[in-house]
Amino acid sequence: MAPRDPKFAPDAETQGTLYQTTSAGVLGVLVGGVYGAVGSAFAKEIPGTSSMTATASNLMKYAGLFGLGFAIYGGTRATVTGARGKLDAWSPIIAGAASGAVMGASSTKSPLGAAVMAGAFAVTATLAEMGSDPHYLFDFSQYDNKPIMLASSKQE
């Protein structure tokens, strides 16, 4: 299989920190907007406010929150990857912990809450990275043997 052409399929090594931070922030705003819209659809109406105002307020709140969290994660991941010179399991762990700590510190007054958020973001980021690449933690290219077939899929 030929290597990917960076013009058409950019990856973490060819993208700049600003690009990764911005694209992660935009993705976060979109995810937060959808989350806010869905949350508003199921929320109870508050007397004295229009449903449109409540929906817009909820949408903006979550879009900003998710956008900030995703941007912090994307920027930290790009910075860590650039500083270390490689993208491995530690990059999303460090970036997730950093973004979780910032989000936890801004949303709670307890240091324990910030630590819990940092841990939760680190675990979530690592699981998301693992799900996107089956060879993420282990490089199987060093082994010459073929993958083990399951008993039910054995060809006779």
TrEMBL record:
- Family annotation (Pfam families): Tim17
Give this protein's Gene Ontology molecular function annotations: mitochondrion targeting sequence binding; protein transmembrane transporter activity
UniProt signal peptide = none
Q: Which GO terms describe its biological process?
A: protein insertion into mitochondrial inner membrane
Got a GO cellular component term for this one? TIM22 mitochondrial import inner membrane insertion complex
Subcellular localization, per the record?
A: Mitochondrion inner membrane
Q: How does it sit in the membrane?
A: Multi-pass membrane protein
User: Where primarily located?
Assistant: mitochondrion
**Per UniProt, which keywords does this protein have?**
Membrane, Mitochondrion, Mitochondrion inner membrane, Protein transport, Translocation, Transmembrane, Transmembrane helix, Transport
Q: Its function?
A: Essential core component of the TIM22 complex, a complex that mediates the import and insertion of multi-pass transmembrane proteins into the mitochondrial inner membrane. In the TIM22 complex, it constitutes the voltage-activated and signal-gated channel. Forms a twin-pore translocase that uses the membrane potential as external driving force in 2 voltage-dependent steps.
UniProt family annotation = Belongs to the Tim17/Tim22/Tim23 family.
Known partners and oligomeric status: Component of the TIM22 complex.
Q: What is this protein called?
A: Mitochondrial import inner membrane translocase subunit TIM22
Q: Which species is this record about?
A: Diacronema lutheri
